[in-house]
């Protein structure tokens, strides 16, 4: 069963960005906020339009979504997570393995893994 729902509304993103805890990786940044809903995680992905055109931004979002999905079973529920692409990093350097490693490092820092 899928344990993650997507954040879609602007006010949901703003809440996590203002009240969540900040974690940084090599290519991505994450804001994580604990929630009352213990059944699901909520994931939001935001990439600035100043970084790249739509095709590249959507490609990065797909990489982030897939790398999150691959470790979703290991993550405890009850969190709101917003993942941002770092402005200083070039989009052309993005690779699945680097993004997955970044997400793993950030979630480890935030102690989101079970056990």
Q: In a nutshell, what does this entry contain?
A:
This protein has 3 helices and 5 strands; from the N terminus they run βαβββαβα. It is α/β, with parallel strands linked by helices.
Descriptive account of the structure:
The chain has 115 residues and is an alpha/beta fold. It has one domain: Ribosomal Protein S5, domain 2, CATH 3.30.230. The protein has three helices and five strands, in the order βαβββαβα. Strands 1-4-5-3-2 form a five-stranded mixed beta sheet, with helices on both faces. Helix 2 (54-71) links the parallel strand 4 and strand 5. The longest helix is centred in the middle third of the chain and has 18 residues, at 54-71. The protein is globular.
What are the main properties of this structure?
alpha/beta; Ribosomal Protein S5, domain 2; five-stranded mixed beta sheet; 3 helices; about 25% strand; globular
Q: Kindly report how far apart the N and C termini lie.
A: 20 Å
**N-to-C SSE string, H for helix and E for strand:** EHEEEHEH
Low-pLDDT ranges: none
Helix-strand makeup class: alpha/beta
Mean pLDDT: 92
> At CATH's second level, what is the architecture?
2-Layer Sandwich
**DSSP strand content:** 15-25%
- Largest β sheet strand count, sense and barrel closure: 5 strands, mixed
Helix content: 25-40%
């Amino acid at each position: 069963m899928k344990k993650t729902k997507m954040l879609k509304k602007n006010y949901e993103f703003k809440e996590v960005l203002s009240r969540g805890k900040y974690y940084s990786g090599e290519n991505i940044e994450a804001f994580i906020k604990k929630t009352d809903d213990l059944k699901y995680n909520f994931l939001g992905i935001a990439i600035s339009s100043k970084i790249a055109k739509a095709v590249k931004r959507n490609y990065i979002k797909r990489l982030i979504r897939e790398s999150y999905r691959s470790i979703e079973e290991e993550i405890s529920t009850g969190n709101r997570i917003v993942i941002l692409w770092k402005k200083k990093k070039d989009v052309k350097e993005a690779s699945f393995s680097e993004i997955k490693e970044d997400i793993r490092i950030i979630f480890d820092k935030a102690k989101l893994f079970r056990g």
